[in-house]
Amino acid sequence: MMAVQSTPPSSSMSTAKPGTTEGAGPSQPTPSTTMPTTTSMAGPPEVESTIQRLSEHRNVRGVIILNRDGVVIRSSGPVFQGSDGVIVLRRYASEARKIVDAVGSSVDRMELDDQLRFLRIRTQQHEARIAHHP
Questions:
Q1: Torsion over CA of 107, 112, 117 and 118, rounded to 10 degrees?
Q2: Which residue stretches does the UniProt record annotate as biased composition, category Low complexity (predicted)?
Q3: For the chain, what are the domain ranges?
Q4: What pLDDT score was predicted for residue 120?
Q5: Coil/strand/helix, residue 39
Q6: What is the dihedral of CA 62, 127, 66, 3, to 10 degrees?
Q7: Looking at residue 10, what is its pLDDT?
Q8: CB of 129 within 8 A of CB of 24?
Q9: CA dist 42 → 30, 47, 50, 85 (Å)
Q10: Are the CB atoms for 24 and 57 separated by under 8 Å?
Q11: In Å, how far from its chain's centre is CA 60?
């Protein structure tokens, strides 16, 4: 399973741990709307609570959970809503899968007994955090 969190980068490097708001930048309201899932069943309470906790962070625009094949299991956040949101969701899911595959292969080639677990990507406008569980 893979979760993707997209946030605008703050002006300084954040060392906040998941579940904390330390270093999250200036306070801004966070919408609490959720896009329908691609499955008909609600996830385990631990998963739902993690999605809720991530979604409540300032500046978090969306959270995606994918299966190993890159299929969206669950998504949350205003960036993935509406007709444009579906396109954005598919693009994020597709690109996240490609990135994880490429970086995971590189890690395997460098250290045969090591595996990719977490990946953080920052651009000028956004930041994606990918937790990979092979």
A1: -20
A2: 25-45
A3: 2-7+45-132
A4: 95
A5: coil
A6: -90
A7: 56
A8: no
A9: 22, 9, 13, 21
A10: yes
A11: 9
Question: What's the gap between Cα 79 and its chain centre?
Answer: 12
CATH number of 2-7+45-132: 3.30.450.30
**The two structure tokens encoding residue 80:** 């993935």
Distance CA 42, CA 23 (A): 31
Per the document, the length of the chain is: 134
Within 8 A by CB and 6+ apart from 39, the residues are: 73, 74
> What's the pLDDT at 43?
74
| Tens of each residue's pLDDT in the chain, 134 residues | 455 556 666 543 333 334 433 333 433 333 333 333 343 356 788 888 988 998 888 888 999 999 888 899 999 988 899 889 999 999 999 999 999 999 999 999 999 899 999 999 999 988 899 999 87
What is the rounded distance in angstroms from the CA atom of residue 58 to the CA atom of residue 29?
A: 7
Distance in angstroms (rounded) separating the CA atoms of residues 4 and 77: 11
